[in-house]
Amino acid sequence: MTRPSPLLILSLGVLAASMLTGCTRSMDDLQQFVAEVKKRPAKPIEPMPEVVPYTPFTYTAYDLRSPFSAPEYEEPAQASELRPDTTRRREPLENYPLDGLGMMGVIEKNKRTLALIRSSEGTIHQIAVGNYVGQNFGRITAIQEDRIDLIEIVPDGMGGWIERPAAIATREEGTQGKKP
Questions:
Q1: Rounded-to-integer distance, Cα 83 and Cα 161, Å
Q2: Is the pTM of this model over 0.85?
Q3: Which of 11-25, 55-69, 104-118 has the highest mean predicted lDDT (pLDDT)?
Q4: What distance in Å separates the CA atoms of residue 74 and residue 88, rounded to the nearest whole number?
Q5: Nearest partner of 104 among 171, 47, 43, 164, judged by Cα
Q6: What residues form DSSP beta bridges with 132?
Q7: Which contacts of 140-147 are long-range, i.e. CB under 8 A and separated by 24 or more positions?
Q8: What is the pLDDT of residue 19?
Q9: For 116, what's the count of Cα atoms within 13 Å in the CB-facing half-sphere?
Q10: Nearest C-alpha neighbor of 117 from the set 131, 130, 102
Q11: Which of 78, 98, 116, 139 could form a disulfide with 104 if both were Cys (CB 3.0 to 4.6 A apart)?
Q12: Phi and psi (nearest 5°) for 129?
C-alpha cells in the first residue's frame, strides 16, 4: 500500500480550510432584519364574536302523523297497461347501462340513419331507430347528430311501469363508452 504524497495532503487541507471560511459569513443583515420586524407595532386583535343566546324550540306537532311512517290511506295506483315486452329477444346493447355507452357518430346507410355506439368494452355497434339499448328496456326514438333519444320503461315503485325519456350524447374523444 502506498502512502499519499505530502503535496496531496497539503492541497486537501487548503481546500478544506477555504470551504470552512465560506461558512463564517457575517449575519449582521439577518440580525438587522429581525430587529426591524420587532420594532413594528403589533396589529390589534379582533374582538371576540358576540355570543347569541340560545332560544329553545318547543315541538308542538305531537298530534300530526310522523313523516317516517306511511300514510293511513293511499290512493290506489291506476292500473296501467304499460309493461316491457319480456318475451322479445334481447339485443346486445341491453347488457350495458346507458352511462357505459358512448355515441361515436352518425352514418347513413341505404337511406337509413344509423348511430355508432361504443360499449364499455370498446366494441362499436350500429343501431337504428327502434333498436333497444340500456338495462331499462330503452327503445331508440330518434337519432340526431349530437345525441340519441330513447324512451325507457322503468318501475314506478308501486307495482306499475312508467316511461322515462333518456338520451345518449356524443362524448369527448377518448371517453366514449368508458366509465369515469
A1: 6
A2: no
A3: 104-118
A4: 35
A5: 171
A6: 139
A7: 140/115, 143/106, 143/113, 143/114, 143/115, 144/106, 145/106, 146/103, 146/170, 147/103
A8: 73
A9: 11
A10: 102
A11: 116
A12: -60, 130
Half-sphere exposure of 143 (CA within 13 A, CB side): 21
| Residue whose cell numbers read 311501469 | 161
Strand pairing partners for 105? 116
Q: What is the mean pLDDT of residues 25-34?
A: 84
Which H helix or E strand runs over 28? helix 28-39
Give me the torsion for CA of 66, 67, 72, 75, rounded to 10°. 170
Lowest mean pLDDT among 56-65, 117-126, 139-148: 56-65
Residues 76-120: tens digit of each pLDDT: 556 568 888 889 999 999 999 998 899 999 999 888 999 999 988
Residue showing cell 503535496:
7
C-alpha span between 166 and 141 (Å, rounded): 10
Question: Sign (positive/negative) of CA torsion 120, 125, 127, 132?
Answer: negative
Please report where in the chains the cell 420587532 appears, as a residue: 38
